[in-house]
Queue: 2 jobs
Job 1
Amino acid sequence: MLRVILTRNNLIMILYIALSILMVMSRESGLSQRITTSGVTVLSGVQRTMHWIFGATESGLQNVIEVWNIRKHYVKLQDKLIDYAEYELQAQRLEKENQRLRMLLDLPPAPGFRQVIAPIVTWDPANLQHGFLIGKGYHAGVSPKMLVLAYNSERRIFGVIGRVVEVFPYSAKVVPLSHPDSFLTVKIEPSGFEGLVNGGSWSGDRLTLRYVSRNALSLLSVGDMAVTTTVRKNESDEGLLISDLYVGEIINIVDNPTLDALEVSLKSAVNIGRVEHVILLIADDVAGYDADNHLEDIDSTKVYTDFYQLQEQSGLPVKPLGSS
Amino acid sequence: MRRFFILFPLIAVLSLVQGVMRGIIVINGIALVPDVALIFLVLFSIEFGRGVGQSAGWFGGILEDFAMAKPLGFTALVKMLIGSTFGLLQGRFMVGALMIALWSIAVATLMKYGLSWILAILMRIHTFQLIPMLLNLAIEMVLNLLITIPSFWITRKILKSAADYIRREQKI
């Protein structure tokens, strides 16, 4: 029995228990206190160092996370800044467009005519005399030889700047009055003398008025206005020429003895270089209504009706005129 | 003796390290550190037997007391009793099954706190209070069970290496 109890392992265990109890019981003694204190002293140093390392790592990680967040914010803000720059550009463009459209809204009405406003689509940048394309074609009622006008918002007048030469479904080609091949009969107000606008300066703001009678020399003066006239229209120009539209203002009269007529320089009513939208005047159906012919039709019908009634009243057989 | 020198350095290092870490990783007064020394002590005691288990437990416990400023010999006594108890299971259990390892660790953790409580009353050490102790027990139980899984794998590797070494030495 004793052998079973007093094994090597049991003896060692009893030794450990005894030692442990002894050590715990003497925990208040100087030696135990010193061991504990020295342990605490040594390991607290390690703990402090590790604590510092942990703290430094933690703050380092926090800093990295913060830098990462700041960078994310920075990238987002940069994107926003690009967006805002784009918005600002769009806003500026819209503002300009608004100004232009507001100017068009201020156009005075032209009674009897439908105003077709067309943007200038392309210019020949090398030479303003070569003409330009407008963004309305025969679907909008545009036809060749039509007068093309623009609005001078400073002087508040419409001015003729050219004529339509070619029409496409949704666009039309316009040749300005300053083109050497462009011809337009005009009348000078108030003297009433006529002339032919043919060509002008490269920039389009000067026009040359030729074939003005030498008799007009004493009656013309600088500042007189040249306006369109329908007196000398051809049959093909029917309904396309409109009278009394401003073309230009006299700025110089040249009496060249080698020529058989006066040559007058005009300042265009509208500076063609600043034009972005043009206006075409299309006669309304009411305006194009031929009242005289209409009355004649009514009268003849009435005459025939009266004739048939008289025939009926006199007992004669009713027989329409012209029938055999 | 050779087995003791395999286990003791491991437990000594772990005891010192976790003693230091217990003072650092603390949230609301509760140390979030598993008792890795206890896990290895239990797993190795089952494999190596009572003699190695109780000796390694006692010396490891002394170092832990030293590191954690506990009454010297208190943890040593607890760990020695745990090492001795699980050392008695040598040959009865194989450390090859993870579930046995998990059960052993759970029992050992409960035993550690139970013995600490009883010994504290017997030795009139008033530093242990019931509620914080139970809270610590719950947290340490969860952490220990989690750490047991990788520890189990490491133990198997060490035991295999040790067996190979001993076999090679015996052949020479």
Job 2
Amino acid sequence: MTDILVYVPNSGKHAAEVLTLGRTLGDVSAIAFDDAAAALAGEYGAAKVYRVDAAGIDDYFVDPKATVLTDLARSAAPDFFLLPSTDEGKALAARVAVALDNGLLTDVSGLEADGTATQDAFAGATVVKSKSTKGFTLATVKTGSTEPAPAPGAPAVEAVAATVAEADQRVRVTERVDEPAGDRPGLAEARVVVSGGRGVGSAEDFALIERVADALGGAVGASRAATDAGYYPHKFQVGQTGTTVSPQLYVAAGISGAIQHRAGMQTSRVIVAVNKDADAPIFGMADYGVVGDLFQVLPQALEAIEKRK
Amino acid sequence: MNIVVLVKQVPDSGLARQLDAQLRVDRNGANNVMGELDEYAVEAALQLKEAHGGEVTVLTLGPGQATETVRKVLAMGADKAVHIEDDAVGGSDALTTSAILAAALGRLEWDLVVAGAESTDSGMGVMPQLLAARTGAPALTGARKIDIAERTVTVEHQRANGYDVLSANLPAIVSVWDTINTPRYPSLKGIMAAKRKPVETLALADLGVSEAGPAAARNEVLSAAERPPRAAGQIVADEGQGGDALADFLAAEKFI
Ligand SMILES: Cc1cc2nc3c(=O)[nH]c(=O)nc-3n(C[C@H](O)[C@H](O)[C@H](O)COP(=O)(O)OP(=O)(O)OC[C@H]3O[C@@H](n4cnc5c(N)ncnc54)[C@H](O)[C@@H]3O)c2cc1C
Ligand SMILES: Nc1ncnc2c1ncn2[C@@H]1O[C@H](COP(=O)(O)O)[C@@H](O)[C@H]1O
């Protein structure tokens, strides 16, 4: 049987996707540092959960978790070790790779039983097949790679007691500041994302984007031109240097569709664009596009949406 | 305070890019630029030097044409450069690259290494952590703000929904996002001055690294293809009905 080790950081959608992908490859053993992660692993069909308990581990950045993951990877000797492709997931995978002198594949969007991985290159313009040639398949998995499918079970739980070694106390986390997301769904997890770009023209007019998002029960996103101009906070930026989203519906209003923006939204199921320039590249990838002024089109659409509800 | 800034020359991410016949990033086109996020690393290094004194050394691993990128960083204000150039490097994996860069860092005196959060070609975003593992220095990655006081570096590590404050003792490795600053342009004076700044060129043998290239890589690329285009959509012109038409589409797709 193929053994799959999965790092489960939390109870979010991305973690559920990685567990689901792991299950298609073999028997999943999940690594959980808290109860919420352990519960998610059970819900998504893990056969086994390593429930790690390490006092004070959250006071330090990356290093102590990397040590735990390296030790578990060494003793479990899996065929695959999967982590979500987040900043943390990639950092941990990098540390495991050096410690074990193992191959490393990042931002994988698909995996086959023989270890062949699908990866995007050049912001998604090129799709590459690759494979590890040393050690097990160590891969970080991009969000939106699989549809999360629950398979509730009662995994065997192995308690792992770990201590934070002095050498792993080098980077202290002295404060965690969460900027509240408000009532809207989180950008990375939302079913619907409505994004505005430079074409929205001002911070005030982003209220129109918010109204459309609310009418569709979605999250608000923004292009980098919009965040750079201060129309909307940076944390809502979609794209290569912002958040990668993969919703059922992505609406781009006043966004030209630069390659760096497309990198963060091109796996959305349905893409809708509103832009007054018929030649904007975003129309090349849109399932439905309206060539027109967003200040005419969106208010009319809003009215029509309200009528239908 | 001595700072090493890591920069990588990459094909311009705004233009068409491709893999060559050996399935490696094609670096022969004319459209090579400094890694877009590395510009922010350079700016951060220069600002820290301006505040705390010391020297900024630019370190790059790349083919001959990467000299252009090195010159640009010197023109922006860095003091000297180390350029590792060796035909045996082509086809290396990230782990090998990190071993080479770590060997070069071992020859330099530094309190701080500043890198981009990710390169804009391979875009793995792992080099700072790989270097931390190899050098034993702490890595504080993904910074949107850096402060140095005494021998402690403190950064705001950017997250999707906020940030974490991280701190560590020097020497340390920091990587930065594009939210941290606005990179300067090289001045004419800077461009002239750059011509006289020292650039040391090293080969793998100078660093005592013997294993590199495809033979030492722990992964291989099997094939590459252009992403199949999405099926053509329906594009309508707004002649007063665009919003209604959009709502009809959303209803047909069951979003309302
Ligand atoms: C290293 C690097 C990383 C980057 N990362 C990202 C990233 O993560 N995310 C990102 O988005 N970008 C990123 N970019 C920037 C990217 O290259 C583009 O500059 C950016 O996406 C452009 O944003 P935009 O489409 O809103 O603006 P523009 O390209 O200026 O487009 C505005 C569009 O609005 C339309 N418009 C104007 N007024 C109206 C109106 N009234 N009604 C309808 N349409 C209108 C115009 O026709 C135009 O098409 C990155 C760039 C670099 C170099
Ligand atoms: N060949 C290289 N030479 C110098 N610096 C590099 C090189 N490759 C990566 N880096 C640095 O590491 C950062 C992250 O790179 P990566 O892990 O490839 O995404 C880059 O932004 C650079 O600062």
